Each structure stands twice: as structure tokens, then as C-alpha cells.
Amino acid sequence: MTHADTVPPHLLLGTCDYPEHVPPDRWAPYARQQRELGLHFVRVAEFAWSRLEPRPGDFNWAWLDEAVDAYHAQGLRVVMCTPTPTPPAWLIRAHPDILAFDEHGRVREFGSRRHYDFASPVYREHSRRITRAMAERYGQHPAVAGWQTDNEFGCHATSRSYGGASAERFPAWLEARYGTLDALNHAWGNVFWSMEYTDWSQIRPPVLTVTEVNPSHVLDYARFASAMIAEFQAEQVALLRELSPRRFITHNFMIFESGFDHYDVARGLDFATWDNYPTGMLEFFAPPGVDEALKTHYARTGHPDLVAFNHDVYRGLMRGQDGLGREGAGTPNGFWVMEQQCGQVNWAPYNPLPADGAVSLWTAQAWAHGADVVSYFRWRAATMAQEVMHSGLLRHDETPDRGHAEVQALDQTLFPAGPIRARVALLHDYESLWLYDQQKHAAGLSYWAQTVTYYMALRSLGVDVDVVHADTDLSGYAVVVAPAITLVSAGRAAHWTHAVQAGTPLICGPRTAFRTPGGATWDDGQFGPLSDLVGARLHQYDSLRPTLTQPVTGLLGTFDATFWAESYRLNGAQALAHYAGGPLDGQPAVIRHGRVTVIGAHSAPLISAVLTDVLTAAGVPVTPLPEGVRVSRRAGRVLVQNWNPEPTDWNGRRLPPVSYQVMEEASV
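^ thats the sequence. predicted structure below, dont judge the formating
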């Protein structure tokens, strides 16, 4: 396989198939139907361990050989998976220490999926063993285009085990990190509440405490658990590189998954993929401001910005990383949607059928945000076990479902490969996420909610966005936005300072630089090492219950802050807006020092107004869009999207409900 084989000229399509779920006489007909539908890729085997190795060392390859040959006969490319998310019963019963522990100290039993502890040395050995066996069998097969490691790290709160192998490894990991107990006790502030340790063996996972856990303890356990996932995957990647050269390696990440550092875990992959379920996502991850009425409005499409944000997270995941191979990436920093919803899901509190046009709209949006391949979950709806209520491209009776018709009607050549040239960077950091959410101080606000509020404001202004790590090279961006980066080290502060001094405007949200890398606050308070750049220090912060608002007034208008409001003592900065009334009356709410602007109040309209002001001054075109209308640009084309269930007028055009239009960028 050459590099050219894996760089598609335009968007390509695929599906997730499960030959082990159906009789063998369906494999060849399914492969033919998949090719006739215009699909190029088929993902297989991520949950097939018990069929591949029904007893220890007794491998049964014949069925998968036949299935892969059927795909190959139709010219389909196979994404082969390591089946490690589902260790079989014989392995678990022989080695029950593989199982993970939940936050209540209970063993998470066999009978579902993702039932293992990443730190288990026994499971690591078997993970390597099955990976090697699969790579030796299929690593050189001409149909195999690449590999997916495991499946959906972190799904079902499985990033962290709070007992067993993880509990045993954690003290040694800490000793390697800190060297001495004195250093650890100081970093964690363990003199508080007499939490000081005198032996490494005294340290346990941060759960089951009487009241709040030390946030520094939580932060380091999150780092440790993330490192275990990275180690686990790196072992598989090394074997796949050795035994299946010139095939891509990826992993399918999750919607708003918070349990590990994706930037670290993605190292060594060729590109990222993620699993996109817009209607289910709406129920779980809608930020403040998306009330029941708005959820109803988007019930059959999902919210465009929640979907887009995840596209942009995973497009940016590999940015700045060296990576290995890179044969699979269609465009620089490209990504795939490995599982795309194509009908109703089964796992949300409510699971409505998608609107007519939603599947094709989701596909077009994925392309516009950088996807090279969209793969639909699943080919045929499952007729057994936990997912019988989940849709597929085919119904249970093998007749085409509604999503099948939309895929069949897609013109893939409308969506050429090519780069996205966003001029705005939005900074993201999992360590800040862990610290922010451990001590939210305002129940209605979280790291994701604050971050997505800024992202939604940018998208509603018609601005394309790169979501990148907080330490990424920022040269080339016209504006940088840091909505919720609460952990700022001296090195990070220097990095941002360099970008600002080079001419890039920086916009920060509340709680910026509140924390040190150890999880404490700075001795001189917020903004710590950013204080000179910001030209101010924190004065007070106010957590607002849902029934409280705090008015903000200034040059850009009058607004109501919800959930959070913080004020500042100025040391060179100027106030653009002040609080009016309440305990913060007259105190600065929005400040500016040179090219740095800090918004201390959580208010979507205020955030939009400040962003408009800074973007316009920086020469970034701003086009306020109607509710539910979004515009994205890629490869010289513009995708205009209407996510509303009714027709909408924009820019002299009548946009049909739940639809998209592709046009040349110069014409918009």
C-alpha cells in the first residue's frame, strides 16, 4: 500500500460490520451491497475475541478469513481492530485480577464490555498476545488498510480503576514523579487536614473519603490513569508497526470524553477518529443556555456546535505531534468519523428518530470540519443482546433503513480533500478540565460548558476554529481564545506571552491561571505567571445559583452574568465593563491590557460581543448567523447548513429544513 492509496481525492464512506453476528451466507451479499452503496471501508472485529480465541491458545481464524476475503473480493478496504475491549470469560475467570474497580470500591464484573484495568500486568500480557496473533494473521493482508486499537477508551467511566492493579501501581508512579515523600507532601499541600504520608505504601486512589478529596491527589491520579492508557496503547501500536507496516493505526475516541489526556494517548497514531452520535449527545452534553425548548428544537438533529466542537477537537488532536507512519492521514491533521449515527441510538434517556436529511447533513458537516472518511454505525441493526434498539443502515430484517437512502443519495465528489485554514485557535487542556471540574464551585458550570460557550459564540459568528492544545504553536493565528485554561505553568505563561508579543490577540475566560501545575493556587493569586501580561489580579469571585444574575455594563452594552462572575484589581489593564449592583458593584468585569482581554463574567451574549470586537479589530470577518444556521469552509468550498426543522432565510437564500448547500468560497 502506497501513500497515494490512502489519500482520498474526496470524502470516502464506510461502515462498521459484525460478520460474527450473522450467518456466513450473509457475508458475501453484505459486502456486495456495501460496495454498491458506494462504501469504501469496513471496520471489523473490535468485540470478537471470544470467537477468535474461544479457549486459551485455540485460535479460530477461519470465519474472519472468509469474511475479510468477501470484503476484498468487492474491493472494500478493511479496518481491522484489536479485540481488547472485550476480554473473554475464560480469561477473566482465570485471572479475575484483570477486572477494574469503580469509585465505590466495587469490582466491575464480566458480562458487558470494557471490563479491564489498564494497569493490570496480566491483561497487558494478553493484550500483547492477541494483538501479535492478529497482526501476524492479517498484518500483510492486501485488504487491510489499517488498524483501530481497542475501542472507545474511557467509555462507561472506564478510564480509571480505583483498586486492584491500578491501586498497586499508583504509589510507584508517584515515587517516580516526585522522588521523595517530602516533595509529594509539599506539592499536594498534605499538611492541610493532616494528610501527610510517611511511606509510599500509605497512598491509595482518591475515592471513598469522608468528604472532599484533595484536588491535587485527584489531578495526579488522573495523570496516572491517563499514562496507563497511553502505555497500554503504545504496546499495541509497537506490535502493529512491526508486523503490519505501511498501514495506518488509529483509535476511535469518544464524545466529550474526560477521563484521560487525549493528546498524550494519541501520540504514535497516524490520525484520530471519533464516534459521532448527535441526538444522544444533545441529551447529555448540552451546555447552560440550551434549555428544554432548544433541546426539543434540535431533538432530531443534535446541536450543530456540540457536533462541530468534537470534530474540531479530534482534527486538532494530532497537531504538532510527530506521529509514526502517517500513511493513513488524508490531509495534514485530518481525522475520520469511525462511527456515525445513521438512525436512532439506544443509550440516551430519549432516542428520537433523526429528521429526514440529518444523516447526510452530519456527513457533510464532518467533511467540512476535516473528516476524510465517515463510517456509519452499523451495517445491520443488531438482532441480539444490548444494542437491539440501535439502528443500522439495514433494519433487523435486512431491508434498507432511512439512513441507507440518504447515504445512497450522497455525491461524495462534492466534498474534496483539502485543508481547513482557520484563523482562530481555541485552547483546550485536559489537566485544566480535571482541576476545574473537581472544584466547580458553581454546580451549573463545568469546564466543557464554559469552553463550549465560547466555541458556540465563535461558530454563531461564522468563524472557523481550530481547537488545539494550550501549548501548541500559536504562530499564524489571528486570534487565540482560552476559555477555561485554569492550569497555567510558568512555561505556558511564557508561551502565551511570546504569542501576544508577536502580535496575536488573546482572549481569556474566567478562572484563567487560577491553578499551579500541582493543583494549588498561586501564592500571589490569580493570574500567577500571567499577571504582568494580563495587567491585573483577581479581586473576588462570585458563584451564582440559577436564580441569581449579576448585571454587567460597559462600552459593548449591558448583559446578565449567570453561574460565575469574577472581578479584578487593575495594574495597567483598563476596564471595558463593570458589574452593576450586587456585591461586585462597580468592580471590573471585562479588562484589557494591550492585546490581552479577560472576560470575568459567564454570559453568552457578553462573550459574543467581546469576541466580535476583538475579531473585527484583528481583521477576521464576522458574519452573525441565524439560530441553527452554520457556515464552514474547507478546500476552497463553503458548506452552508440549516439545522432547523423549518426553512430559514440567510444571505438572500432560502435554506430548506435540515439541509446543506456546497458552494465555491468566492461566491459566498
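Residues 590 and 599 are 5 Å apart (CA to CA).
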